[in-house]
């Protein structure tokens, strides 16, 4: 248990290559993650706005329908 196996060293080597293997790789990866999060939040807020619009339209249609029923009685 005192030494690492080959798999441990391969994982460490992969992490080191990822971190130091090239200029700007980490920042570009994190930039892509940030863009994905922004896009996700924008999609969620647009969906919520659409749901609110639909609910308002349905409520207005129901009020109009109720008024029409009341005037025709």
Automatic annotation (TrEMBL):
Topology in membrane: Single-pass membrane protein
Location(s), subcellular: Cell membrane
Matches recorded under InterPro entries: TatA/B/E, TatA/E
Alphabetized UniProt keyword annotations: Cell membrane, Membrane, Protein transport, Translocation, Transmembrane, Transmembrane helix, Transport
TM ranges: 6-22
GO molecular function terms listed in the Swiss-Prot or TrEMBL record: protein transmembrane transporter activity
Transport listed as a keyword: yes
Alphabetized Pfam families for the sequence: TatA_B_E (PF02416)
Bias type Basic and acidic residues, positions: 63-73
One of the protein's GO biological processes: protein transport by the Tat complex
UniProt-annotated stretches for the region Disordered: 49-73
Cellular component annotations (GO), alphabetically ordered: TAT protein transport complex
Quaternary assembly: The Tat system comprises two distinct complexes: a TatABC complex, containing multiple copies of TatA, TatB and TatC subunits, and a separate TatA complex, containing only TatA subunits. Substrates initially bind to the TatABC complex, which probably triggers association of the separate TatA complex to form the active translocon.
Family assignment from sequence similarity: Belongs to the TatA/E family.
Function as written in the Swiss-Prot or TrEMBL entry: Part of the twin-arginine translocation (Tat) system that transports large folded proteins containing a characteristic twin-arginine motif in their signal peptide across membranes. TatA could form the protein-conducting channel of the Tat system.
Protein name: Sec-independent protein translocase protein TatA
Lineage: Bacteria, Pseudomonadati, Pseudomonadota, Alphaproteobacteria, Minwuiales
Annotated gene: tatA
